[in-house]
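Next comes the chain:
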Amino acid sequence: MEFPAQETNINLPRGKSFPISGNFDLRDALNPRRLTLAMWDQAFLLRHIPGGSFEDYDQVLDEAIERGYNTLRLDPLPQLLDLTHPERLISFPDPKSPYMPWCWNTAVEGPVGEWLVEFMEKMLQHRLNYTLSAWWFTGDSGHNRFPAESKIPTTHKEAAELWVTLLHEWQSRFGFEGLVYVDLANEVPYFLPGFLERFKQITGAGWGDQARFSSSQVAFLKQELDESLGWMQSEFPSLRFTASIHGDIRWLDVPTPFDCLDVHFYSDMDPRWVNRTHFHDYMSRLFTDNSWHKGFSDRCMVTSKVIGPMLRARQRAILSSFAGWSAQQGMPLTTSESWSSWYYIDSPDLDWGWLLDWAEWSVEDAIDFKMWGWTPHNYVQPQFSNWKDVRWHRRLTEKFLKN
């Protein structure tokens, strides 16, 4: 499985800057008015084992509230779980990836559907909000080896069909109270099985081959997403739907009306970051080998020290473009994972100082560009040491929530 590498478009589109006019702020009419997001995805299920970081659901939910998070991003595995039979035992093999940060890093077996029901009942009792997202991992998803019985959608319409089935049962079990939005597919186009290949076959060029999407690529993406999102909006008018994307400014040419805009902004959008940190070279070894940790950490620290302000300014310009698109199309802007490196882990040779500094910038920038939802980094989960620093999280979440 190849991991997503953002396209480093150098020239920002003209006329897309963040518009400020009048006093209307759509966030004031939304509930909650601000989202402080924690990306828990599959980890809340696949680490719910003895000794796992999500073993005690009451504890982790209390801790999320204590740190100021009001919204959890969850992957309910629509390609695998059948909530009409939650008792079914499901086995996940040992991924043999000791440095897997999120999903799971040991063999897992159990009634995963029942775990989901237990978690949802407790989460609703805690009065937390949540979003639903799908990574669409399947049996052949590289290090993320899923059970063979996983369904394999290859189009977003097929993915929407699985969502519709799940959401009908979801509504009868849990209702939709607290469900802020549903993400059709995490980071289009990277994780839906076979989609990148189909994109190239139909449009005549690969995802990263062109500085801007061609007219045929724009038309293909619009049709692919509009059909699926439109059907889901029709089936569930009380829900909001989106498809999350990277901070790739080529999306600004795709006129798809999302109900909200979940964009993931990362430093590898900037070639100056990639050149200095060797990010793509190191990421090819990320799950099984820790010999690269010190070299990567040292490069990240010196890069942040030398050109940190430049990287932030560039990221702010990209954020401004998406904020403008958000305002123009009436799509409140969120990010549920973002800002610096999309991969890090607790390791004696990985210094988190520069990454946490970047998170400090992010809350200021999210406030400046009127984001509805924000997260400080990808690692807002109890298996990471930074989770223990309650005051750090609380200081940042409170700052965002009051602005």
